[in-house]
Hints:
The protein has helices at 30-50, 82-91; strands at residues 4-7, 57-60. It is an alpha+beta fold and 100 residues long. It has one domain (21-91). Strands 1-2 form a two-stranded parallel ribbon. 15% of the residues are buried.
Amino acid sequence: MRILLDLHCSDSWADPGQQSPPAARAALSFPVLAESVRAYRERGLAAFITAELHPMAVQIGNEITHGFLGPYGKVGGRCDTPDPWRRFATLGVIAREKQQ
């Protein structure tokens, strides 16, 4: 069986026009939000691997054409500048590289 792991980033429905962060993370500063989401994803992926369920692909969010985890990860339109894209990329990190 091939597995696509979609790491959804909202408490409720998410589509290109609705990408709110989970309520538990809504008031976090950007650095804390980014680390919190990264750690959550890393734990989730590790749980799949521990269970010997190796995803063929990992997708961040659902329909993230205009970003996700708004307002920090919003991109496109008025947010189509380098800073929003840097935040978007930072929020998209799934796991840290293992240090040698």
